[in-house]
Amino acid sequence: xxxxxxxxxxxxxxxCAPDASAPIGTAERFYRALTSGQPDxxxxxxxxxxxxxxxxxxxxxxxxxxxxxxxxxxxxxxAVWGEExxxxxxxxxxxxxxxxxxxxxxxAGCEPRPELPxxxxxxx
Amino acid sequence: xxxxxxxxxxxxxxxxxxALVGQAxxxxxDYNERQLVDGGSTLSVLAYVxxxxxxxxxxxxxxxxxxxxxxxxIVTVWLIQRGxxxxxxxxxxxxxxxxxxxxGEHAEPDSPAWAKVGxxxxxxxxxxxxxxxxxxxxxxxxxxxxxxxxxxxxQRLSELxxxxxxxxxxxxxxxxxxxxxxxxxxxLAVASMVVLSxxxxxxxxxxxxxxxxxxxxxxxxx
Lengths: 124, 222
Known about the structure:
Chain A has helices at about 1-15, 20-35, 40-45, 50-55, 60-70, and strands at about 75-80, 85-90, 95-100, 100-115, 115-120.
């Protein structure tokens, strides 16, 4: 029986009491950088594979990000499960992953599609 | 001497712990391999053991094992299998008499205290094995569902999908796939043991009849 209580405690610690403030903070810093004309700073908040995949040949990550004209708005809600998070803003939905040095954005500019994954302008 | 008298329990507890530690290391390696493919980050063994991925894998196996024993304990009260060591003899179906069960006035000096008394305590003790197995099954299944929705939602978010609620998860194909793939193997194992113990022997094992015992003999062990 003691094993079950430990298991329940593990579940509570790992899955059911997530802190959404850190991924929300990354999402807010991302859009603050974009709206203040610092797309290169916003790029530093992208997950490594997302940042590498974004630019076309001959352009920087910041240039590619600025070209997309993403709009965020107020944070409406956030969900954190394990190492993954979703932050929904008034104009956008972001997907984030927790790395050793903090939360990074895996996908941005995402539109929901019925029964399918979100369609994202920036993703890995 | 005490170790020898408890050797069966001790060996299985040690095997359980060794297998759980093995699962923790193998599970961490598997999780990290998938994370590298998906561009994610790796976890230490300790962080993995505290994750919902580990919890759901543990709980889904526990619930099916305890369901197996719960059903075995309860169903064998009423159903028999002629010739099987796992069955009572034909004619003894049901809860049996107080005399057969050594309860109340039929209790013996060394009978457990709650077998000698009446009322709720006797009822509770008379059903304590099945109830305990059943409660552990339900708690494990609940743990599987809670850890499962956490692990499943992490997976859904990594696939750029919305998370779902616990209520949606327990109706989702993933929950029932995890559950039923464990149940089917447990039910097959029980059916195999019930039937094979009619015709096959393991000399010296209490799970088997004596080697020379008739195939017709039910409930004997040697």
